[in-house]
Amino acid sequence: MKKPEQELAEIKAMMERSTRFISLSGLSGVLAGIYALIGSGMVWYWIYAPATEFGKNLESLGTRELINRTLLTGFIVLILTLSSAYLLSQKKSKKTATKFWSPSSRRFLSTLFIPVISGGLFSFALIHEGYFHLIAASTLVFYGLGLINAAHFTLNEIKNLGYGQLILGLIAAFHPEYGLICWALGFGILHIIYGSMMYYKYD
Amino acid sequence: MKGNYDKAFENVVRLRIMSILMVNEQFDFNSFKELLDVTDGNLASHLRNLENQGYIQVEKSFVGRKPQTNYSSTQEGKSAFQRHLEFLENLIKENKT
């Protein structure tokens, strides 16, 4: 018989590896934050510059062209984020010799993306109905809920990131004039902080 | 001494299988194979061993046209594993004092 300490460690490791997706790369969080900051900087420029007062130009959000440009920026940010998260996490799972596509990663992704996809569709409904000022709030809230939901199946710290996004989303819901700022703080700054913390801790 | 050292979990593959089934409601054959990195025959014989002891149960189904074999732990298996854990913990405690 092996030492009981070793045996318990073995049991714990198997329980973790079979339920948790541990290959999420911290670096991809930092990159996601940088993309989001660049994107929101561009949108800020289109909406507010040269006037710098918040909430003044909100009515200009109604123009077709601006909405299309903002949506396109959002999509580019999303695609860049997803592809760098995919590539970096796959690299990490190779390094740690764990399977990237496993029951635990599938569970993680489905718990994360069910709220996120419904949030995306909900945001389209908001655009369709003309409630442009609530889009930042709704994307933040749904993303936060998705993260809190998915935290059961990956490293636990992601829960705090989720709470942060949720709080910023609720602030943006009550103060739509700060929506873009909240969005930049949530998707940009919080991702960078969280990603670098994870990078130093686990990578 | 509390708990009971269970011979069924003496083998490391069986210990791992049971650990996985304690925290997952179901786990299928191929996922076991991926995670444990063992051969088909080896895995199958350990699974059968646990099944014969009444610690796990098997459920065969089809996903599309592919057969899938799902395993889950029985109540008996869970309490046996719990007793095994208690035994290990007590052993550690006693060695400390």
Automatic annotation (TrEMBL), chain A:
The chain crosses the membrane at residues 21-47, 67-88, 108-128, 134-155, 167-194. Keywords: Membrane, Transmembrane, Transmembrane helix. It comes from the Bacteria. It comes from Algoriphagus sanaruensis. This is Uncharacterized protein.
From TrEMBL, chain B:
Residues 13-92 form the Winged helix DNA-binding domain. It comes from Algoriphagus sanaruensis. Transmembrane segments: none annotated. GO terms for biological process: regulation of DNA-templated transcription. This is Transcriptional regulator. SUPFAM superfamilies: Winged helix' DNA-binding domain.
